[in-house]
Amino acid sequence: MEERERKSVKPDSKQSALSEPEPIPEADKLNVCSEKFDPLLALYSPAAPPLPFPNIKCFNNVAEYESFLKGGRGRAKPENVEKRQRKAMKGVADPERIERLKKLMVNNPVSESEVGESSGAAARRSRRRQKPQKNVLTRMSLCKGSPLGELHRCVEERIRVRVHIRTFKGLRGVCSGFVVAFDKFWNMAMVDVDETYREPLLGEALYHEKALTISRLFEKLSLQESLGCSEPIKKQETREKSSEGQSANPKPAPMSCSAWPANTREDSRTAEPKLSKDAESKADKGNVSAKAQDPAARQKTYGKVHTRHINQLFIRGENVILVNPQPL
Amino acid sequence: MESEAADSAPSCAIVNSIRERTIAENSMVVLLQGLQGEEVTVDLRNECTARGRVVNVDAFMNVRLEDVRYQDRRGQSTQLQDLFITGRNVRYVHIPDHVNIMKTIQNQLAKIHRVRNFASEGGSRKEFAKKMK
């Protein structure tokens, strides 16, 4: 009862209690502000006791009142409000925090947005140094003693290499250039590339043609060039036929290297041009020339050897047959 | 996701998946990823060529190109707005002359390194992808 009086005591209510003239004893007993307040009577009276002033807060028991005084759950005390705000701002980068972290930075790298990593990175870099970083560039030098190590040597010593490229079946052509970077899949980045290639034949010819080899490739190339130079086709025909009978070898391009069946990677080195000896290969050339006599359209699209120069090329390792370092 | 300075290329330079990042980091795909935004010619396994601007290259060498001129092996040309090439079908990628191969690889590796360090220290979550270009 005393607590209730204390709680509800306000200047207004005090005044109203004082200013009130002689209250009826009954009412007096029901008046919560008076000394003669009888709570038992108030509880059992039919009407609720008059409240001293309008928006008074009613509690069901003393404990409730007590917790209200303490501040209770959900009550918007200033410290609660602050706590809630802090929680809401948790993910957002606090500029003050960023400033503090910046001061911790040992080195002074790039930009503000990387503050999180830079401060930590500086501290951890010394710890991490025990474990060296492995990436494609470091792995290039790890391959010592293996065929890839040999390729790495070509990269370091800037040796010109010839890369045999494959088509779905057999040899497509050769890329001659310098390797800048490679990886374990034999993907290669090359510069100053001269590619000599022949697009695969279509249809029946595919079954009947003999497997393309490097020597044949360059023979075809030189043949093409010679065909292009001379005017009348008939002359070529006679020349081809005459050469077919003999075992005379045409002059292939001087750079031809190991033939198709060679399996050893990178160990083969050829000094001299390898010349084809079979009569069959002559017949093959004869076929080429025969095709050349056909209408011009077919001559243009069919089984021609092309050469092109590409400054910087990336080759997917899947298409690599072998890599052949060229002797200086 | 935060993004650094606005750039014309819409795609993110570093992928979100840690698996793809590791695969890319240990192979030459990083060179191709560094070519994003450049105009390149891709020679395919089927003897066709596609010339266009690189939008995106993932760890498996799948390439997405924009504004592509796709040329058949017969020489027939088609203009395409968007072309996706499976990694396995790539034979060559012609790199533009102005691109420095070593620098591109090193830049890409540095970006991956930054993302990885940021993820392990800066935030509370392990996997945090940072989009940047």
Summarize the structure in words.
Chain A has 15 helices and five strands. With 328 residues, chain A is α+β, with helices and mostly antiparallel strands. Chain A has a five-stranded antiparallel sheet. In chain A, helix 7 (95-104) runs parallel beside helix 8, helix 12 (214-229) crosses helix 14 (279-293) and helix 13 packs antiparallel against helix 14 (279-293). The relative contact order of chain A is 0.10. Chain B has 133 residues and is of the alpha+beta class. In chain B, strand 1 and strand 2 (49-57) form a beta hairpin. Residues 1-10 of chain B have low confidence and may be disordered.
Main beta-sheet annotation of chain B: 5 strands, antiparallel
Number of helices in the DSSP assignment of chain A: 15
What separation lies between the terminal Cα atoms of chain B?
13 Å
Low-confidence blocks of residues of chain B: 1-10
Distance between the termini of chain A: 111 Å
Rounded to the nearest angstrom, the radius of gyration of chain B is: 16 Å
| Total beta strand runs of chain B | 5
Structural class of chain B: alpha+beta
SSE layout and pairings?
The complex is a heterodimer of chains A (328) and B (133).
Chain A lengths: L1 H7 L2 H9 L5 H6 L8 H6 L17 H9 L7 H11 L6 H10 L10 H14 L7 H6 L5 H10 L3 E7 L4 E12 L5 E11 L5 H5 L5 H16 L3 H13 L33 H15 L2 H6 L3 E11 L4 E6 L3
Chain B lengths: L17 H8 L3 H5 L5 E6 L4 E9 L5 E9 L5 E9 L4 E5 L6 H22 L11
Antiparallel strand pairs in B: 1-2, 1-5, 2-3, 3-4
InterPro entries (chain B): LSM_dom_sf, Sm, Sm_dom_euk/arc, U7_snRNA_Sm-like
Pfam families (chain B): LSM
Organism (chain B): Ameca splendens
